[in-house]
């Protein structure tokens, strides 16, 4: 009070100030309680950090457990964000169809490390325009076309030859081979497996995938990213370093494209983007976004497929009887003289069922890339306030016992009709998500998964002389925690 006396503040002002403060506090508490009551139920967390300090590496399993307690759609605070988690098929179906849930977090996924958003992280009109342009260009240069399949088939041929000379060193060449397929679309060329620049970026993608988590600090506590990098927080340092490597490589590639003598011909994604950029009057398309888009497509297009294929090979070893069954389909439909064709899958139901079962049980993208509500909306009966973040827990849906009897059992037959002659893909198998923001690489990934699996089994018997661990590591994707020791025994020669 002496301070107020000193400044001789009149008493009525003090009363007014106190009344306004109390009024503001009551209004704030009332608003917060009303807001909390409007959200689906869920666990409490700490101020500022919310539930974030309790999140573990395999957050999708934690979310699955929380859904048993709070209901199939529940909420929790992560950092400053209200987050809604959808864990069952009925509500997920509803969410897929909701246009108010197409946005991504306003600051993207790498806040504090990279501020320019790529098509994967954009929202609203910018996302719509970039997605439309990206798909248009990629289709023009081969995505979804017969030529792309021929290119993949040729790449697999090189990969299998390298496997013959480097038998048992699968992981070393699988990633460079798979990433060559997306490289062909983005850069207009493929790389030798020992190309030093390409080796660095393949390793960077792997380092990035292991260290990055969509449920990590960069998404929920972005203001902590820079101080933690400065303090040497290991995984953030790796994310930042690998991101720089990727950026340097792509910058060089873009420069090469900009300096091309015959700049009129559109041979790849970079050409197509630069062409569209030059025709626009505004700056919606620019070099920074181009670089970010190329990195995003490169990472999304190689890591996911490599992880799925590695799981596939491991299940082929774990269940040799299924490996033989696929090989007998190969004998019947393709033989050993001809390269596999994607259309062969139509006569190979068991092979297709096996690939579906790997995608279900391992759910490489266990939780969706985070969405954001762009306006107040609902998922089923649950309120979703504007700007809440939304997780689709694919892991839960892929392990829901009502949909998949005995969900922890690996059983490709669940996708086959009773007589085993037809494969059926139920709508609730959603490894690529669904709706307007579903994965644009689904077609390419399916061609790769089929052709690599069949190509390998046509030429090699896969075994292991050690028990394989099926423990997973969850970063950008769910991948095997330990490099599997696989033996590739040659059974037929090159076509
Ligand atoms: C087995 C392989 C793959 C899986 C399981 C997978 C899964 C997914 C999932 C679940 C999403 C999130 C979609 C959403 O928000 O609803 C996604 C997005 C995306 N994927 Fe894939 N993907 C795979 C392969 C690929 C490939 C080969 C490419 C390259 C062409 C690719 C490019 C992308 C891009 C660019 C996005 C962001 C789309 C957007 O935000 O509009 N993916 N993927």
UniProtKB/TrEMBL annotation:
Keyword Zinc: no
Obligatory cofactor(s): heme
GO terms under cellular component: cytoplasm
A Pfam family it matches: p450
Name of the gene encoding the protein in the UniProt record: 107362046
The protein's name in its UniProt record: Cytochrome P450
Single GO biological process annotation from the record: xenobiotic metabolic process
One Gene Ontology MF term: oxidoreductase activity, acting on paired donors, with incorporation or reduction of molecular oxygen, reduced flavin or flavoprotein as one donor, and incorporation of one atom of oxygen
Annotated keywords: Heme, Iron, Membrane, Metal-binding, Monooxygenase, Oxidoreductase, Transmembrane, Transmembrane helix
């Amino acid at each position: 009070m002496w301070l107020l006396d000193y400044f001789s503040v009149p008493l009525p002002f003090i009363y007014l100030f106190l009344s306004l403060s109390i009024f503001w506090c009551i209004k704030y508490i009332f608003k917060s309680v009303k807001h909390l009551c409007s959200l689906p139920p869920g666990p409490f967390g700490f101020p500022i950090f919310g539930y974030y300090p309790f999140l573990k590496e395999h957050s999708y399993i934690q979310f699955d457990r929380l859904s048993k307690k709070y209901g199939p759609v529940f909420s929790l605070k992560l950092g400053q964000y209200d987050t809604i988690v959808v864990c069952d098929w009925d509500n997920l179906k509803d969410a897929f169809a909701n246009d108010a849930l197409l946005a991504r977090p306003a600051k993207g996924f790498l806040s504090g490390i990279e501020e320019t958003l790529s098509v994967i992280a954009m929202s609203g009109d910018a996302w719509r325009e970039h997605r439309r342009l990206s798909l248009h260009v990629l289709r023009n240069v081969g995505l979804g076309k017969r030529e792309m399949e021929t290119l993949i088939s040729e790449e697999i041929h090189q990969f299998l030859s390298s496997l013959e000379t480097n038998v048992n060193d699968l992981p070393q060449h699988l990633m460079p081979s798979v990433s060559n397929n997306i490289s062909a679309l983005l850069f207009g060329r493929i790389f030798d497996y020992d190309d030093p620049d390409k080796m660095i970026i393949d390793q960077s993608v792997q380092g990035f995938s292991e260290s990055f988590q969509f449920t990590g600090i960069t998404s929920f506590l972005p203001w902590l990213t820079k101080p933690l990098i400065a303090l040497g927080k290991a995984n953030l340092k790796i994310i930042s370093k690998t991101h720089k490597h990727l950026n340097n490589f792509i910058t060089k590639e873009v420069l090469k494209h900009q300096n091309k003598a015959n700049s009129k011909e559109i041979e790849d994604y970079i050409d197509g983007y630069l062409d569209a950029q030059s025709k626009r009057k505004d700056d919606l398309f620019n070099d920074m976004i181009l670089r970010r888009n190329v990195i995003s497509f490169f990472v999304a297009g190689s890591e996911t497929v490599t992880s799925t294929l590695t799981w596939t090979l491991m299940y082929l070893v774990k269940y040799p009887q299924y490996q033989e069954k696929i090989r007998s389909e190969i004998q019947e439909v393709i033989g050993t003289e001809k390269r596999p064709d994607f259309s062969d899958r139509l006569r190979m139901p068991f092979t297709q069922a096996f690939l579906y079962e790997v995608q279900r049980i391992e759910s490489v993208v266990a939780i969706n890339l985070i969405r954001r509500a762009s306006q107040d909306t609902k998922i089923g009966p649950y309120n979703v306030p504007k700007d809440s973040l939304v997780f689709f827990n694919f892991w839960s849906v892929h392990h829901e016992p009502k949909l998949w009897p005995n969900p922890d059992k690996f059983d490709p037959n669940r996708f086959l009709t009773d007589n085993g002659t037809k494969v059926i893909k139920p709508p609730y198998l959603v490894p690529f998500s669904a709706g307007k923001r579903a994965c644009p690489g689904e077609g390419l990934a399916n061609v790769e998964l089929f052709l690599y699996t069949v190509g390998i089994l046509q030429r090699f018997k896969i075994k292991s002389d050690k028990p394989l661990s099926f423990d997973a590591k969850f970063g950008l994707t769910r991948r095997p925690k330990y490099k599997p020791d696989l033996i590739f025994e040659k059974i037929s020669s090159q076509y």
